[in-house]
Structure formats: structure tokens, C-alpha cells
Design goal:
Layout: H1 2-20, H2 27-52, H3 55-66, H4 71-81, H5 85-102
Length: 103
């Protein structure tokens, strides 16, 4: 889950950067800007997931993360406890995109 999803989120962050049309010439600044967008997407996804979970399920998810459970185990948990995970991820990307492009 993580490698493919992360790759996709990084592509989304890159696309948001391109749409913002900042024209940053320093490659390190550009990389940091895209990393910031990517982090904000991750944060939004996490917040949206937590909002859907009961307190008990949120604790169970945290336990999976803290014990470094395999990605497939985490994905199975999310599929069982989160309604429309792909839609949730897409909405999080769109929310971050809209925030960046409105600035």
C-alpha cells in the first residue's frame, strides 16, 4: 500500500506545484515545496480517516502504526473501517490543491 500510494501522492503534489506556476529555480527549494504539499496531503488524509473512525477504531489504527504492522494489514483495517477510502484520498488531494491554488 504505502509505496504505490506514496508514489501517487507524490505525483499529486508535483502536479499541484506545476499548476501553481511558481517557477522556482533552486532545485532544493522546489523539492522542499513539493515535499510540503505532499505532507499536507498526508495530514489531510489522516485527519479525514480519523474523523470517520470511532475512538476505539482510532486507537486500534494507532496501535497498528506504532507496532509497524505490515502495510497490507493496515490497508485491510482501513478497508473495513473507512467508507470509500479512494474517494477520501481524492477529496484530500483536491482540498489541498484548492488551498494552494487559491493563495
Amino acid at each position: 500500500m504505502h509505496s504505490q500510494e506514496q508514489f501517487t501522492l507524490e505525483q499529486a503534489a508535483e502536479r499541484i506545484y506545476v499548476e501553481k506556476k511558481l517557477n522556482l529555480t533552486d532545485p532544493e527549494v522546489r523539492r522542499e515545496f513539493i515535499a510540503d504539499i505532499n505532507e499536507q496531503i498526508h495530514d489531510r488524509i489522516t485527519a479525514n480517516i480519523i474523523a470517520q473512525l470511532s475512538e476505539k477504531d482510532a486507537i486500534a489504527l494507532e496501535n497498528l502504526h506504532s507496532t509497524n504492522a505490515p502495510a497490507q494489514e493496515i490497508r485491510t483495517f482501513l478497508d473495513q473501517h473507512v467508507t470509500d477510502l479512494p474517494g477520501l484520498i481524492s477529496n484530500a488531494i483536491l482540498q489541498v490543491r484548492n488551498e494552494y491554488l487559491s493563495e
